[in-house]
Amino acid sequence: MKIGIVCYPTYGGSGIVATELGMEMAKKGHQVHFISYSLPARLDVTLPNITFHQVNIQEYELFHYQPYSLALSTLMVEIAQQYGLDVMHVHYAIPHAYAAYIAKQILKEKGVELPVITTLHGTDITLVGKHPVYKPAVEFSINQSDIVTTVSESLKQDTCSTFNIRKPIIVIENFIDLSLFAEEGPCLREKFAKKDERILIHVSNLRKVKRIEDVIETFNLVQKKIKSKLIIVGEGPEWQTAQQLIHKYGLEDKVRNVGKVKNLYSILHVADLFLLPSSQESFGLAALEAMAAGVPVVSSDVGGIPEVNSHGVTGYTLPVGDVQGMAQAAIEILQDDQVLKKFKENARERSQLFDVKNILPRYEKLYHQAVEGVKNGKACG
Ligand code: GMT
Fold it and tell me: pTM here?
């Protein structure tokens, strides 16, 4: 098939899922065309069957804001026609689903049918999408998509309760390529901690929703009981808040921010525990990646996280802001070698459910259904 994939190029989960999905489809022999405003973080354009198309924005002084959605729909039309795309799969509703609707209409005028699949990732519904400034346009473009998917059951419920959706919503969970996590690579552990220390890790784009302050607060409590270090992977607006807390508690020698890393897998392998205290998380891909590397997770219990992190099995889920509880849970896991070993095994085992091998065929089936115009089930509500 010839597949168009529209996504954000940044390190956020939606872009990662879109990129990994496209690369897997390309491996299976499909022609995949990525469309974004810059090269997606994990995209390997040297792989066969992959082409990247950059959205070109023309700066014009009249515009205070450049019309990105317009440029995006125009490029979608061009690529669909030039390469004869069978389906367009857009990740993140804003503005991708909206731009796809416009592209679909332009193509229709030209006698071309382009089925559109929209995958909702979370903040496009739970934070940004429901704001009155965007809500009608988001609701409209979801309803106009030929197929709609969400990355968790929880996000499906959120979507149904936030919007008036007339389309069935199909849940296809986020996934990981487990083979990438199999190899530990060179051991980096001694770079981060002494032999008798545990390593805690947090990976995110350090936005407010990630509650980085809870990561530091939790770690501060843990390190009082257990010799440990904290690695923070990622960059973002809340790093300054984190730094203030690190300074307040005198943790400068115990917390290390490595920024954005190329090989996340090898750094995850050195960790003993992943902290994810987010105030909102439709799935928690970062937690799944940690689990695939055999790292148990102590997280909040919001959104889709409990669908991934099984309480008492792969880690613990606690109410948002309960740093005492999170620290207690972390200590429970970390203080005993045998307990830690069990949690690590459980985490790795559960991650297998979300292996790309299990998830990919579900997307492939949808692509075929989109092309054939198959109607999927009942609308929500
Ligand atoms: O939360 C982020 O850091 C980025 C965000 C995005 O849209 O790229 O992630 C969302 O999509 C991911 C992939 O589907 C999910 O795993 C994340 O849980 C979700 N983030 C939130 O809901 C806050």
Answer: 0.93
